[in-house]
Amino acid sequence: MNAVSPPVAAAVAQTASSAAAIVRKGWWRAQRFLLLRRASQVSILVLFLLGPLAGIWIVKGNLSSSMTLGVLPLTDPFILAQSLAAGHLPAVSALTGAAIIVLFYALVGGRVFCGWVCPVNAVTDTAGWLRRKLRLTGGRSPDSSLRYWLLGAVLLASLVTGRMVWESVNPVSLTHRAILFGGMAAWGGALTVFLFDLLIAPRGWCGHVCPMGAAYGLIGTKSLIRVSAQHQSRCNDCADCYAVCPEPQVIVAPLKGKDGSGPVILDAACTNCGRCIDVCGPDVFVFTHRFDNRKD
Amino acid sequence: MDFSRRTLLKSAAGAASACLLAGGATLVGPAAQARPAQALRPPGALREEAFLAACVRCGLCVRDCPPQNLKLAAWGDGLSRGVAIGSPYFEARSIPCEMCEHIPCVKACPTGALDPALRDITKARMGVAVLIDHENCLNYLGLRCDVCYRVCPVIDKAITLEKVSNPRSDRHAMLLPTVHAEACTGCGKCEKSCVLEEAAIKVVPAHIARGAPGAHYRMGWEQKNQADRPRFEKPVQNLPQHPAPGEIAPLRGGQNPYPDANKEKAR
Questions:
Q1: A168·B108 Cβ contact <8 A
Q2: pTM (two decimals)
Q3: What are the pLDDT digits (tens) for A256-276?
Q4: CB A171 within 8 A of CB A160
Q5: Cα angle vertex B10, ends B9, B11, to 5°?
Q6: What are the domain boundaries of chain A?
Q7: Quick check: B57 and A167 CB within 8 A?
Q8: Chosen from A164, A209, A212 to mutate, greatest number of chain B CBs within 10 A
C-alpha cells in the first residue's frame, strides 16, 4: 500500500472498516461525520496557520489561549485550572475565554473537543487504524478511571509546586504549539502517544490517560447534543459500532436498553464523533438532544 | 456505589499511576531558578515563580511583538533548554526589546502573566544591564566607544559616563559606562550593540545582577535617613594659611597645581 498522510490514512481506515456501510448507504452517508470531523480539525489548524504562514491573522495564539479577530478570547479551561491551582488568578481576558469554552462544550458535548478539534486525535486515530491493519491485538489499556485520577493529581501537583505541571508534557498543547511555533523536539509528545496507542494500550491515550480529555468530559456531563440509538430495533448485532467507537463501553447500555437505560448515550466519555452513525448499516444511531428519548 | 474488591483494586491502580505520571510531569518541568541568565522574559513579566504559574504559553505576546524578538521555548534548541517549554523569552544579544511605547506584548497577554499594570515601558524591569567584563570594555581601556551609552533608550539615567582620570597617561580621562539599576529596563540594547565579539555589557535577571545591603544599613548622608538623629555643627578647622613647603609637587609640565597658592607665595 502506498504511503499516505495520517488524516488520509485514518480516512482509509474508516473506509475499510465501514465497507459494508458504504455499500448500503453510499460513500457520503457512510463516512460523512468522519469527513466532517477531519474538515473541522484541518480548518481549525488552517485558521491558526494562516497567520504565521500567510500573514492573515484571523486567529492568534494556540489552543491554550487564542484571540480571534481581536475580539473573541478563548482559553482552555483545563490549562487555566492548572494556573488557578498553581496560585495565579488569571486576568479577565483568560477567564472570559475559558467561560466561553466551558459554555460551548457544556452545550455541544465536552469531548467534542477531543473528536473535532484536538490535533492529537489524528495521531491516535492513525495508531488505532494501524493496529487494526497490522492485527496487533496485544497490550492492555489502563483503567479508564486513570484520566480522572490524573486530572486530580495534576491539579494537586500544580497546587503543591506552584507550576502548571501538565504543561511540560501535555501532548495536546505541545503538538499544537510545535505546528504553529516550530520546535521539532515537541513532536516527541505526539510520537510517544502514537507508540503508546499502537504498541502498549489500544485506544489508550485519549480514552484512558489524557487529563485534558477528562476535563472536557466533565464539562460536557450534561451536554445537550447527544448520539441516540433511536432506531435500536433495527440493530443486527454486527458490532461495527463497537469496533469503531473510541469509547465502546458507552454504547452498550443505551443500545441494548440495559439497566433501564434510555436510547440516548449520556456517558460523558462519548466524544460525539458520530462514527457509530457512519458505520451503522441499518442506521440505528442519530444525533439528537439529551431529552429526546424516542426509540423504535 | 460499587465497592467490590475488583473496582477498588482498579481505582487504586488508577490513582497510583496518576500520581506517578503527575510526579513525572512535575520533574520534567524546569524549576524557576533553572532559567538561563540570558533568557529574558518579556516586559511586565511577573517574577519567575509567579510567571510559571500564570503563563499558559499561548504565544499571543510573541505574535504581537513588532520586532519579533520573542520566542517560545522549545526543547532542544540552545538557551531555551532551561526555559519552561512553551514559555516566551528573548535573547538580548540576538534581538533586544524595542521598548514599544504601547507595550503590545503586555496588552496581548490574556492571563496577566505579563502584568497589565505596566503602562509605562520605562518602568519595565526585564533584567539589569551589568558591565560584566570591564577588562575588555573599550571605554575602560581608555577609548571612546560609548556605544552602549548612546543606544540606551533611557540614556543618562540608566547608563551614564563617569569621568575618571586615566592612570596610565595621567592626563587623559576615561569615560566609564556606569549602569544605574533603578532606571535600567533590561531591554538589552546595550548588550546587542556592544562592539566586542562577545558583549562586555550584558543584561541578566535582577536577582543575579543586584546585591542587597542589610536592612540595618543606613546611608547617613541621605536626607531621608537624617530624621530624628542628633546633628552637630561642622567643627571649625584651622588649616595653615600657607602650604607646607614641598607638600604640593608641581605638575610634570612645570605648572603649579594651585594658582591661588602661587599668588600667596608672590605676596
A1: no
A2: 0.80
A3: 888 778 889 988 888 888 888
A4: no
A5: 90
A6: 7-21+225-289, 70-218
A7: yes
A8: A164
